[in-house]
Amino acid sequence: MRRIFITGSSDGLGLAAARTLLNEGHEVVLHARSGERASAIADLVPRALDVVIGDLSSAAETRSIAEQVNAIGRMDAVIHNAGIYLEKSRGGTPDGHAKILAVNTLAPYMLTALIERPDRLIYLSSGMHRSGTASLEDVDWKARPWNASQAYSDSKLYVATMAAVVARHWSDVVSSSVDPGWVPTKMGGGGAPDDLEMGHQTQTWLAVSDDEAARMSGCYWYHRQQRRPAAEVDDPAFQQRLIDRLAELTGIVLFERRSQA
Asked: How many other C-beta atoms lie within 10 A of the C-beta of residue 89?
């Protein structure tokens, strides 16, 4: 039996993953953006170990989520599932960031740093990460004309890269990124062609399986098959630039720079 925290588990793939893990007998800590969102999964809450509340677009609430999780106890795995897609505008978070960047990238970065280190970390990326731009000059969309699809692609490139750099720095953690496919959730739409079951079962497999493949760190997965991500994901120079930029934006240093010999 494992203990797993899943962000964004009141709907979509996160909820499907939570149900699967609970049905398998694992302890699951749920997450909802608000008390109202938590009420939507009232049937599931009694079966869960606990539920934490907080809006991932807010740095203060993201910190609170980490505190709530740490108060419950150490997790065996954390699934960074929460994400948003086609925002009509850049939006404005309480901290002044583009909302897609805040929820899809800054929040998992902060939670990675602030939650007691688990054995496994799973980050939800997307096949659209291949269209992400490697330029970090305007990562927060303050100068570029808003493009929701590009902002989403960028955020998922950053998340896949985050998983890779965590794997490189933390040898005691299995860190993975996942393309769940274009699945028929509220985000993906009813006409999405991919398999909803496989869309969440890769995450649950990575979180709890003792299969040798599931314990390989630094991999990018699609439907339990290892895939090669965009070249930037495994580029140490891009990894460092990204992590440095995220540290600047959040005020949290995830990895200390290694001194040169």
From this structure: 10
pLDDT in tens, 110-140: 999 999 999 999 999 999 999 999 999 999 9
Q: Which of 109, 123, 152, 222 is catalytic?
A: 152
Q: Which residues contact 133 (CB under 8 A, 6 or more apart)?
A: 150, 153, 154, 157
Which residue of the set 85, 99, 109, 156 is catalytic? 156
pTM for this prediction: 0.92
Contact 258, 215 (CB under 8 A): no
* Token reading at 100: 């897609």
The answer to whether 156 is a known catalytic residue is yes
Question: Token pair for residue 160?
Answer: 């896949």
Q: With 50 as the cut, is the pLDDT of residue 259 above it?
A: no
User: Please, what is the average pLDDT of the chain?
Assistant: 91
Is 99 one of the annotated active-site residues of the chain? Answer: no
- Residue 123: phi, psi to the nearest 5? -115, 130
